[in-house]
Amino acid sequence: TIPLFLHTFIFRASGLVSLPSILLLGPSGSGKTSLLTLFERGANASTHTSQSPIAVECSLPVGAIARTDKYRSMNDPTNLTHKKFLLLDTPGHGKLRHHALETITNPQNLKGVIFLLDAANMAAGDEGLRQTAGYLHDVLLLLQKRMSNGTSKAPKEMAILIAANKMDLFTALPAALVKSSLETEITKLRVSRSKGLLDSGVNMGDDGEDNDDWLGEMGSKDFKLSQMEEFNIMVEVACGNVTGNANVEKWWKWVGDRL
Ligand code: GDP
């Protein structure tokens, strides 16, 4: 497998690195490969497996208008060219996740992160929900650290789309329930993780106020995704489905708003 930095190098060498990029991540089986195939359709399609991270050049479809184009006249010829961006696919497999997290800490013109999940695998008390929430927690915590370390390299704002996939399945939870289930699960997770730290003595002598590993608002009882706004991380949840009668309009619009 080719490491991500090599891809980045290749894209830099080919001049494509100036394209804005969107990072795609999520647990395996959530539909990343399927979404990637759908997003790159019409572009220079290439087949790949989800084993190694890969950057694919995509174009916004006609009709989805990028934010920067909103005020252009209808007759402006630049409207006729598709807005291009790179979609960085990352493996959902636990062992390979460092690739995904590497991109977050070392972004190349990163405009946003799509966290794809299987909304039909989110039942309360389910292993699927626990794993998905755990992965999301880690991604958010990494971003939070990145945004709050105050270096000039950190972007002013980072946008995350929680894309709730497989809405065509009748067991899929609607967006509002996906959101609240994740919040409930992360609430539990964040408590157990900080307890683990206390038990291990890591936080001894610490008043707990600047615990780096606490996600969201310090001292809050319940975790809410909106708590990420304090760190200039804007989280949105939108549902859709990739296969069958694909419905990814809300996701396209979100991408368009970031370009
Ligand atoms: P990845 O591991 O995240 O890359 O996920 P894949 O793209 O390989 O998808 C995993 C499985 O979910 C495949 O069998 C897909 O056909 C299926 N899948 C992906 N998107 C959808 C969807 O919107 N609806 C349904 N019903 N199945 C989907």
Structural domain count: 1
Tally of helical segments: 6
Q: Give the biggest beta sheet.
A: 6 strands, mixed
Name of the CATH class: Alpha Beta
Q: How far is the first residue's CA from the last residue's CA?
A: 30 Å
Strand content: 15-25%
Helices and strands, in N-to-C order? HEHEEHEHEHEH
Query: Percent range for helical residues?
Result: 25-40%
Coarse structural class? alpha/beta
Please name the CATH topology: Rossmann fold
Instruction: Spell out which ligands are present.
Output: guanosine-5'-diphosphate
Q: Could you list the spans in which at least 5 consecutive residues all have pLDDT below 50?
A: 42-53, 77-82, 203-209
How does the overall form come out from the CA principal axes?
globular
Looking at CATH, the homologous superfamily is P-loop containing nucleotide triphosphate hydrolases
Task: Supply the CATH architecture.
Answer: 3-Layer(aba) Sandwich
Number of strands: 6
Structure notes:
This protein is α/β, with parallel strands linked by helices. The chain has one domain: Rossmann fold, CATH 3.40.50.300. It is 33% helix and 16% strand. The chain has helices spanning 4-13, 32-40, 97-105, 127-148, 175-199, 249-258; strands spanning 21-25, 54-59, 84-89, 110-118, 158-165, 233-239. The longest helix is centred in the C-terminal third of the chain and has 25 residues, at 175-199. 33% of the residues are buried. The structure holds guanosine-5'-diphosphate. Guanosine-5'-diphosphate binds at residues 28-34, 50, 92, 165-166, 168-169, 241-244.
